[in-house]
Amino acid sequence: MGELVGRKIPVDIRRRLRQEAFFGCAKCGSPILQYHHIVEFAEEQNHDPDHMIALCPTCHQGLGKMRRERCYSLKKNPFNRINGKIRGELGANMETSSFLVGSCTYLDTPVIFSYYDRPIIQYLIDEGQALLDIYIPKEDMWPDILVEKNDLMVNSGGKWDVDFRTNFLRVQKDYGSTYFQIDLRKEVAEIEGKFSILGEQFEFNPTSTNIGGATIKGGTIVRCGAGIAVGDGKHKLYWPNYAMAHPRAVFIRMR
Ligand SMILES: [Zn+2]
Hints:
Number of domains: 2
Bound molecules: zinc ion
Structural class: mainly beta
Strand content: 35-45%
Largest sheet: 10 strands, mixed
Order of helices and strands: HEHEHHHEEEEEEEEEEEEEEEEEEE
């Protein structure tokens, strides 16, 4: 009794509000979030998630005199519930061309990781700015996480948490493990991931890169056409796309 509650919102309360809102602003879906007290903090002095809502800074600010009932109805029916996708913009003004991925450093090596000649993690430098392209497929090979020139899309299905902040993204499928993470807040951009492609496991963590039983630790790859290339050198993978008569992933023999 009489315990003082600080203004800082506990991590688990923030996550619960993100999960409830399908990892986006309840009103517009934007993944950069603030946590609003529907019943003002000054009034109740607690962080009760039943009376709080996840909103982006713009909607939070524009909230003004939004009525409490409106907040509770948005809370029940957040934007991303129908949408099923989280969209955002990664690393605006990112100038780095060095990446730390699975404990290895990639300098001037635009294709960091490819699978059957298809880039999974790559970047290009355009007018001094790094633009990321990432394709982490679901089991059916449609994208689960897709980054196209820094434009981000994450499927909200099957996610335990999607924590998106300025220049930072962490996607978790389960508690305690990282499915995919991009940290662009430091001099060297850092990428971590643990995912599978067609049943093959790939892991890039802070201490090593693990691919098909092979472990690589702490290498430096400089000015290389392709960093880590998995494939047979004979086939190229094509992602499913709507231009196909029967959209599915296919391997096509290279000439
Ligand atoms: Zn919003």
